Amino acid sequence: MLIKEIIQHLEEFAPLNYAEDFDNVGLLVGDAETEATGALITLDTLEEVVDEAIAKNCNLVISFHPIIFSGLKKLNGKNYVERTVIKAIQHNIAIYAIHTALDNQHKGVNDMIAEKLNLINRKILIPRKKSIKKLTTFVPNKDAETLRIALFEAGAGSIGNYDNCSFNVQGLGSFKPNDEADPTIGEKGQLHFEEETQIGVTFPVHLESKILQTLFKNHPYEEVAHEITTLENAHQHLGMGMIGELEQGISEEDFLKSVKETFNAGVVRHSDLLGRTIKKVAVLGGSGSFAIENAKRAGADIYITADLKYHDFYKAEKQIILADIGHYESEQFTKNLLCSFLSKKIRNFALILADTNTNPIKYI
Description:
- By secondary structure, the protein is an alpha/beta fold.
- It is built from 11 helices and 15 strands.
C-alpha cells in the first residue's frame, strides 16, 4: 500500500477543503508515492514521536496537529520543529496532519468529545457557511433521468438528512451548430429546438471536480451549458463545535467532577457556578474562546473547551458556565478516532496508536 492510498481514505473522511484558512494540513513531509510500512497515529508530531515511529517500523506519522504551522526559513535544528522535521527526513518518515479538516467534520473531534460525555441530540455548534454549491444544467428530456442518477451517485443532491434532491423544470431550448461543431442532436447551420429539462442539484464544495466530471461524462451534448453557484446556506453537518443534551440533568458540581474524571484533566478552570441543573452542553476541542457567544446563543448551560484567557471568563456574564479542561485533554481521543476509522478501511496493515504523551503542560 502506498502512502497516498492511506491519505485518500483520510481525505474522504475529512476533506482538506474544510480546513480553516490559517491552517497547514495535508502531507507536510515525505513522498506520497512511497510504499507504507506502517502508520503511527498521534496528536502531535515531536522528535520522540518520530523515534517511536522508527522503533515500530512506521514510515508514516498521522498527526492531528501540524508540526509545520508557519513557514520554515531554515532547517538548522535550533528548535523542536526543525529537529523533528530533520529527523523525519533523515529516516524517510512522512508526516501527515489533518487538524481543522477533522475539527469541521460532523463525526470528527467534537463528536468524539460529545460521545465521551454521552450527549444526545447532537448538532454542529457553528455550521460552516459557503460549503454548499449548486449545479444548474440543461439536458434533453430523454437523457434527464440518466444524468440525474449519475449526479446523485457522484454525491450531488444531498441536503442535511435527505439525498437524491433535485429541482427540475421542462422547457424549450434552442441552438444552431456552426460549421466546426459536431452536434449530437441537430444539423450544422440549422436552428434546432429541443425539449429540455433544467436540472438543479446541490453538492458539498469538495466534490466539485467529481461532479463536473460526472456531468461531462453523462451529458449527451458536445457543449454542456452549466452554471455553478455558491449558496449562502450553512452546512448543518460541517463546522466547528457541537451542542447536545444529557439524558438527565445533573448538578453543576457533579457534572464538572465527571468531566474532570472523563478527560483525566489535571485541573478544570471554570467561571462562576449558577446554581442550575446542567442539561444542554456545548463543546469545542482545542482553543475555543471564539465560540463563547455561539454557545450562549444556543442556550447551552455549560461550554467545555480549552485555552480560555483570564478575561474570557468574564464573557460568561451569569448566562453560562465556561469550563477549560486543557487543550491536550480536549483532543486526546482524536488519535483513537482516526485509528478506528482507518482500521475499518484498511485491513492487514499496521496502524499503531502512539504511546508518546505529547502534552507539554504538567500539573502538580
